[in-house]
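Continuing the batch. This is chain 6 of the set; chains 1 through 5 are on the previous pages. Same settings as before, nothing changed between runs. Recording input and output for traceability.
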Amino acid sequence: MRKKRKNDTMYQKQEKYFYGFISLWLIGFVVFTLGPMLYSLYASFTDWNGITAPEIAGIKNYVRIFTEDDLLLKSILNTLAFTLISVPLNLVIGLILATLLNKRYFGSNFFRALFYMPSVIAGVAIYIAWTYLLNTNTGIFNLWLSKLGIGAVGWLTDPKWAMSSVILVNATSCGGQMLIILAGLQDIPRDYYESAMLDGAGRLKRFFKITLPLLTPVVFFNVIMSIIAGLQVFTQPWILTQGGPINATYVYGIHLYNYAFRYYQFGYSCALAWLLLAVVLGVTGLVFGTAKRWVFYRD
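Output for chain 6:
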């Protein structure tokens, strides 16, 4: 009986320590995340300019989204184009880099740090630097093209090239995916490869029969995170093109931002934000639903 009471006391102390350690996070989550989310849900049913008190408007904002917003479809299509291209592109680049850097050789750690660095450095600073590199008149890329006898390309000023340029610039920040895939590669037991080599399997066959299937949990995680980031994209097109030229890079995030901080229609902007949340939850739910068909675990 005494031993039981002693164990109960120990568990109670551990429980207190647990809640004590996570209390700051819980307070921060409630105050800075959950609270603003609930208020934005309330604000989405109001007319609110961010200054005066909100006025109840019912579902007016949500009706307006589907009936009166002329730029909504354009922003959705641009966002989908960015996501559908950037997600597989970044994944393939990250996989190639991780495969090349998986082996130990002189300078491998340097190159790992080099490719991961853009993901660590502040995004705004990186994208501002890219605006100089891609400048039509003074950018280094057009300077190289001129030496080859090719005319200047409006990387960020031509509607034909603007979205492609934003996607390529975004691809330079795939170092995080590379690092996660690299960890997945190093977690694969070497016994599998040795057994396959004894059976006469070549490199290509080993990659598609061993490496790729065992990497699917890591790929699944990267796909989910990349889709969420792609649907919420804002920083890259905003810094590089401000949504231009001629709305060629006008994504949903810029659309939401404009209504909140340029037109001061915070109620409508909150409705747009909750619509985005619903889309993100729906898309990620679909991906989770297909996971059983292509994600394999060693167990």
